[in-house]
Specification:
Layout lengths: L3 E8 L3 H19 L3 E5 L4 H7 L5 H9 L2 E6 L14 H11 L4 E7 L12 H4 L3 E7 L11 E4 L5 E4 L6 H16 L4 E6 L5 H17 L4 E6 H10 L6 E4 L1 H14 L9 E3 L11 E3 L18 H15 L2 H16 L2 E2 L9 E2 L2 H13 L1
Helix pairs in contact: 1-10, 1-12, 6-7, 8-9, 10-11, 11-12
Bound molecules: nicotinamide-adenine-dinucleotide, 3-isopropylmalic acid (IPM) and magnesium ion (MG).
Catalytic activity: (2R,3S)-3-isopropylmalate + NAD(+) = 4-methyl-2-oxopentanoate + CO2 + NADH
Family: Belongs to the isocitrate and isopropylmalate dehydrogenases family. LeuB type 1 subfamily.
Protein name: 3-isopropylmalate dehydrogenase
Length: 367
């Protein structure tokens, strides 16, 4: 099998704990089924700041750009609360997304049957849930200029962030959403706030035009993003694919995470455009959760979001669809066996730590 270059960025807090389980899985796949993964590892976030004074070094950025895929853990934590804004841990992740042009962030929210009773919502609301949030990841208020704090000179300051979207950005992200919908239930819901934002008016217009021109076979609905948040907890099964901007996507995916039982369950893939010649996409895979400083170092973090992010990597970067399916099935099987990390624990189930959960999934996957 051809060599597959993975660049690992475990990051801070529970990032390295969750990544350790994926590293074991990668070694096992190389050993048992000759998967041909070659890994290299770098620093991102607070640990990179401690080592280099930057949230990611230029050398590690170059490695990320050259890899077939990047696996990312999590960044941030109270230790770095006071570092300058430009080099805060989160800046490393934002640089990776922007410089690698990872404009399409796929955040699936699936409620595994075994967890239907452990969501904070009623079982009938989440049972069988399978939705996909497609979040625009390189534009909007995250990157728009100006972005600054101005001293007004009268004892007041003004904080400014700018929401900006150009036609091509909305066209390409809605294209991704429509294409993916065709492989699912053929239904896209676009969320913006056209009632208060000019960028929302343009978003709505461009999604509508893209639909009419290229994807008229897909069912398209529009929803105001605040109402979308409400509908996600009222009756999430009305959705198939949700396409939305960077900030709304960030918030709506955290809401969706709780439908699955825990934020420790939600994986994601951040993809660039296919290269014209090689057709290969730059890609980074990361759990939706953060560095969870409150539980870091305790060995209790749920590694499933990280492991499921690796399953997305197998599927989208290496076309290893059978292996991805098998890994997702292994996660479901371990949950069916009653194994639970603390965040998804319910009565009668067996509590396990990060390492035991990882081991059990790997054993099922290889078994
Ligand atoms: N992609 C990323 O690296 C990323 C994403 C979100 C937040 N962050 C950063 O992480 C830091 C903490 O942010 P936060 O507390 O708002 O969000 P968080 O996701 O780190 O934690 C929120 C809550 O969920 C729990 N949790 C998260 N992941 C879990 C897991 N795998 N297993 C069990 N419980 C889990 C945490 O213990 C915490 O109670 C901040 O610095 C933030 O900027 C980073
Ligand atoms: C850590 C932060 C920059 C990031 C974001 O806001 O995009 C995170 O919340 C996420 O959801 O990936
Ligand atoms: Mg977030």
């Amino acid at each position: 099998m051809a060599t597959k270059h993975l660049f690992l960025l475990p990051g801070d807090g529970i990032g390295p704990e969750a990544m350790a389980e994926v590293k074991k899985l990668i070694s096992a796949m190389n050993e048992k089924i000759g998967s041909g993964f070659v890994t290299d590892e770098g620093l991102v976030g607070g640990c990179a700041y401690d080592a280099h004074g930057a949230a990611i070094s230029d050398a590690d950025m170059a490695k990320a750009m050259a890899a077939d895929a990047v696996l990312f853990g999590a960044v941030g934590g109270p230790k770095w609360d006071a570092v300058p804004y430009e080099v805060r841990p989160e800046a490393g992740l934002l640089r990776l997304r922007k410089d690698m042009e990872l404009f399409a962030n796929l955040r699936p929210a699936i409620c595994y049957p075994a967890l239907a009773a452990s969501s904070s919502l009623k079982q009938e609301v989440v049972e069988g849930l399978d939705i996909l949030i497609v979040r625009e990841l390189t534009g909007g208020v995250y990157f728009g200029e100006p972005k600054q704090i101005i001293d007004l000179g009268n004892g007041q300051k003004r904080g400014i962030d700018t929401q900006v979207y150009d036609t091509f950005e909305i066209e390409r992200i809605s294209g991704v959403a429509f294409e993916l919908a065709r492989t699912r239930k053929n239904h896209v819901t676009s969320m913006e706030k056209r009632n208060v934002m000019k960028s929302g008016v343009l978003w709505n217009e461009v999604v509508t035009q893209t639909h009419k021109a290229r994807y008229a076979d897909v069912k398209l609905d529009h929803m105001l993003a605040d109402a979308g948040g409400m509908q996600l907890v009222r009756w999430p099964k009305q959705f198939d694919v949700i396409v939305t901007d960077n900030l709304f996507g960030d918030m709506l995916s955290d809401i969706a995470a709780m439908l699955t039982g825990s934020i420790g369950m939600l994986p994601s893939a951040s993809l660039g455009a296919p290269d014209v010649k090689t057709k290969k996409r730059k890609a980074l895979y990361e759990p939706v959760h953060g560095s969870a400083p409150d539980i870091a170092g305790k060995g209790i973090a749920n590694p499933i979001a990280m492991i499921a992010s690796f399953a997305m990597c197998l599927r989208y970067s290496f076309g290893m669809v059978a292996e991805a399916d098998k890994l997702e099935a292994a996660i479901a099987a371990v949950l069916d066996d009653g194994l639970r990390t603390k965040d998804i624990l319910s009565a009668g189930m067996t509590e396990v730590g990060t390492v035991e959960m990882g081991d059990a999934i790997i054993a099922k996957f290889l078994g």
